[in-house]
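Support request, please re-run this one:
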Amino acid sequence: MNEAPSILLGLSAAAAFALIATGIWLLRQPSGSRLKAVLMMVAGVVILFNAWINTLPMPARPVPAAAAVQP
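Re-run finished. Output below.
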């Protein structure tokens, strides 16, 4: 993998884990906002999902039917 994209994906994963951990911490606080905590955890999961999608390989291009059949 190229160095710049892997650094960005690593930073996004670290930010997502920080959001999730802070959301869990906020949920456990007696005076914490439950809605804010849940939204932080959902945002962290969405960031992790986007990072996972960006690490998938590109699909192969389909071969046109006219180029596949040659007389």
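The radius of gyration is 20 Å. The helical segments are 3-28, 34-55, 65-68.
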